[in-house]
Batch of 3 targets.
Target 1
Amino acid sequence: MTIQVYNVLTRRKEEFKPINPDRVTMYVCGPTVYDVPHIGHAKTYVSFDVIARYLRFSGYRVRYVQNITDVGHILDTGEDRIMKGARRERIEPMEVVERYTRAYFTAMDALGVARPDISPRASAHVPEQIEMTKQLIADGYAYEVDGSVYFSVKKFPAYGKLSGRHVEELEEGARVAVRDEKRHPADFALWKKAEPEHILRWPSPWGWGYPGWHIECSAMSTKYLGETFDIHGGGVDNIFPHNECEIAQAEAATGKPFANYWLLTGSLTLDGVKMSKSLGNVLNVETALQQYSPQAIRYFILSSHYSNPIDFSDSAIEAAAKGLERVLVPVRSVRDRLRDTAESDEGAGVSFSATLDQHRAALKEALNDNFNAPAALGVLNQLTTEVNTLLNSGQPIGKATLTAIDQLYRDYGSTVLGVIPDEFKQESDYELVDGLVRMLIEMRKDARQAKDFQRSDRIRDQLAALGVALEDGRGGTTYRLTK
């Protein structure tokens, strides 16, 4: 089965056919670095991390470009976000940029998000943005007014093809700042005139100024990926006006399709409410990582399809953490047994290879279907049930079988989904819990041998209430976590 993707541009699921058969070019709108990264950023960039991981796992060479917006992201009030951050903290704008660019990459590193191949900054590509703006003026798609340059949406009939909005339906002030100097309220800035006191400004053919927000993505994506590239990603919140404007200015400048496949992530709410600084309900990644493991956060994000909205709550993330732990327990057991098992294979190992083949095929099928991570997690949970049954069967399990099980977990749980650590480096909590449970299992065994069944049942029931299920088999008593 080939990879199928839901293309927001065509509004249908399509077979993914990259421009070059063995190479994928992908651009994802990056953060505006004026504040610390929040859990909404995590949803978008963990999702595209898995997409990039799976494409590479499937044999493609991927060039992944994700920009850093450090100038030009204008609020509806006409204020640059970076300037707003500089005033808030009373420091230089580029100091804001450096501080929060580092914070962003630190947060993504902690979440196991692989860094993009190229992370271009808007401020470092002003010449390219000026050149594209000059081209648009020359071709009649843009006009200059008193040092500012605007794109004329009426000159581009396809404007609105991604979002489904039409120029005639746009009301004044809808998501775009209205300026008397614009010919149409939906016209958007390619270049803005800078007043003398404006710190972030560059010389241009139209005087001192700075680029608009949308032009950076068109200029940088086409510079590094070509005039037409495979995948454009980002959050659904930016579909209008940002993504729509990207398409218009890029296709007007080049005369070619911009991106062939548009993949957009659904929004994230916090306890059912959209995150907003004014409401004081923004959850930073750093704060989330103080409470939950990176793998638990990834597991939570991937438990919903990347294109769907998701609600972050304590109960939801705790459920995800428990679900992840149910997977990790047999992974640890398999790796522990691998260290202690001789180089041989026998017994249940021979029949289990077919089970592994079935689960590997199911994982591939799930991810080929529009990168369906929730379905892949479901397969991992089914695999975990089968592995637990094998481990608790009391049958001898050879090293080859254990290695094959571990490899399947590593391929999809680690390499693709990033929810299973390659190595369990911080084992103190696990070892403590494991040791205490095994001690109670021994105490229960002693009670049963002494025919003190009331005591042995009490140990079993109290462990069950805590989320630890005991399973008696021919090889002895094992346990699994149920919460």
Target 2
Amino acid sequence: MSGRAIAEKSKVVEGLKEKIAKAKLVIVSDYRGLTVKEFTSLRRKLRSEDSEIHVIKNTLIERAFAESGIGQLNDQLKGSTALLLGYGDAVSPLKALVKFLKEIEKGGIRAGVVEKNLYEQKEMIELSKLPAKEVLIGKVVGGFKAPLFGLVNVLQGPIRKLVYALDAIKTKKGGE
């Protein structure tokens, strides 16, 4: 191998390491069977989710993961491999990928990295079933809010009774 080819591969690995460091989500997937049109459609969908997908040689992915300190993907790096990198929400690009692959019935997820933690295929599929981050935050806020409303109602009870009693006294005295 020439020195130029080695330099180019090192440059690709460095660029990939930078992208992996920025990404909240990295998915190693199989794109076997996808047509160019389907892959282009997937790219467009993922772009709207603040993510990107690339076809990269397995050896370069393996080097970038090892140098990033994430871990080894030996079993998952066989055959045609695409790498999805999500920079915004960690779940929405995963949901988009799972939905797309289910619709076309081709390809699949092999493994993934969420917030620098390596997960296997089953765990990534389970993660894709979670609601969006905003929905989860809304549920937590709703969970906090409900007891507070109950507390407010309990605290307002005696005041309400006092107002009713004063109103009854006023009506009684005004009626005399």
Target 3
Amino acid sequence: MPSAKTSSESPQAADPYRKLGAAKLFKIHELMVRARLLEERLIKMSKGGDGFFWIGGPGEEAFNVSLGLQVKKGRGVDHDFLHLHYRSSAIVLAMGAQPIDSLRQMRSVATDPYSKGRSFVNHYAIAEFNIVPVSPTIETQYSTAIGTGIAQARAKTDAVTIVNGGDAGTAEGDFHSCLVWANRPVLPLPILIIVVNNGWGISTKGETQHGERNISDWAKVFPGMPGKTINGNDVAESWGALEEALAYVRKNRKPYLLEARCSRLYGHSSSSGANRIPEADSIEILESAMTSRGIAAPSDFAKVWEREARALDEAHQQVKSEPFPEGDSAWQDVFADGLPPSYPVKGGS
């Protein structure tokens, strides 16, 4: 009789954390800490009068850093396009953005590279990374993602469009328009459609609003469309799910719906107080996973927290010395060819 099949992988080799490897885990941890400390600093700036409004994504670091590190970064249709929302700071930091620029946008100084002091915090616009300007209107990014999806469907490339938003926003027509357009048989679109589900719509519990079991179940409407719900607080699960989803979209040039369930550690925004909420903490989960496997010691983590906090202190001091924009600069970059004659603004261009 033939012998029974045995797995060629040892239990250690099958461990998703060990598969990621120590170097990658330390890098992910560093970026998660950087993103968390940045958001906490932005909250302090808002509460201390050093900014006007805060909204961000503390609690989403495990999923968002894993996404940012897997993006095919660059400019043009041969690189991934990102249509993000205002809880995406960890994605952008993982792609190489600097925390000091978020501090600049919070303080509305002229050196803010994303909006020149004109928009509130976490509204990124980075042409060299294909990050389409973040809009404060709810979930319109799902509609604009259709455009870059069409461009990439027509181009000979493996680059994809990535769009993310929140669970409450899936009630908007923009989200469903994205699903419909991405699944048209005449031209399927290579879009990774992401919903980060933190269980709340401002102050409304998600469980009172959603008739579907999982938001990813909307994929079942479209024959053959993959949909998956994961624990977005877990680094290894997030990394693996994103790797799988991106590989599918890149190869098949068709959409994929991914729902990541994450914590919301500081509420909706500064309008709701931005106080710490006792939910699962993705950084604590990662640190526990690494120490329990002997990959790291608590002292290793302490050094990261201290180094990142010190760097933010220095960045904040620098930003506080930078100038606010002049009033006339509000008209800069509004029109490609400068202001038309019907806008008689002194000094405008």
